[in-house]
User: What shape does this take?
Amino acid sequence: MSEKENGMTAAAAIMEPLDGNVNRNSKDSVFCELFSRPAYCLQLYQALHPEDTHVTEDDLTLVTLNSLMTQDRYNDLGFLVRDHLLVMVEAQSTFSVNILVRFLLYLAETYNRYINRMNLNIYGSKRITLPLPELYVLYPENRESKPDEIKLSKEIFGLDDASQAFVDVKAKILYDSKQGDIINQYVTFARVFDAQVTTWGYTRKAVDETIRICRDQNVLSSFLAEEEVANIMFTMADQEKAKKFWEEDLRNEGRAEGKIEGRAEGKIEGRAEGKIEGIEEGLFISVQTLMRSMQMTAKQAMDALCIPADKQAAFAKLL
Assistant: This one.
């Protein structure tokens, strides 16, 4: 059945959740905020496909699936360009080939939604068609000896011969791009920010200096001039600072109790329903520390520590 006959576009088929719940796009990082905007997303596609000179913003549709398999925050971007599905992930500070597994699961869920919403019969004899995937990892760190691409067959299955793999996923790694294009500007921004954090720590000073330097160098200057973007960066800095407080609290608790094996052990007893075990004790202490040392409200402290909403009510009762 064609999209016209079905009455639903490919983008709508992917975006609409199978359970009927509203799918909200979360923009909790500069990466997500930047490339979720059509003008910058178009520049990104043009940097990847300079041969496609006829593409316009109308050809692009964001289809990022948020919180698909985890509550953790990741800089994931997915968008459709005609019959191509492009997925880009900004790698964390520590490079990991495990990102290939995330790609595999992302594609499986995306195609599952597409097949169901388009009423495609995968059990019939007629061949179905799916959007062609392109997978990218943006790694702003200095290249050193990192590869140009990674494959599931080699990195996860341990096969030197990809033809031996019945399932494979390949991702291209981008370290930088043509001078001045949107990829190069974002990579420059990320490196400037890392340098300022090294100098000033996760502080407002680091954010202000990053914005100043980038604007002076005409790097994402208009974008970084927006108050909304600055607030995102401030939030990111506060979250990283909160994380440092949390990690230090866990170390201190571990030393005090003679226990430190990656998680604080023990119990907080006699309050609310009785106990918060393991690493949640460290979270509880970290919330108190942020409220005391940074004059945050309980809600602000819990948000900064990325405590899931379904646990915040229980934590609040203990404060």
About this structure: The chain has 13 helices and six strands. Residues 3-175 form one domain. The CA atoms of residues 246 and 286 lie 5 Å apart.
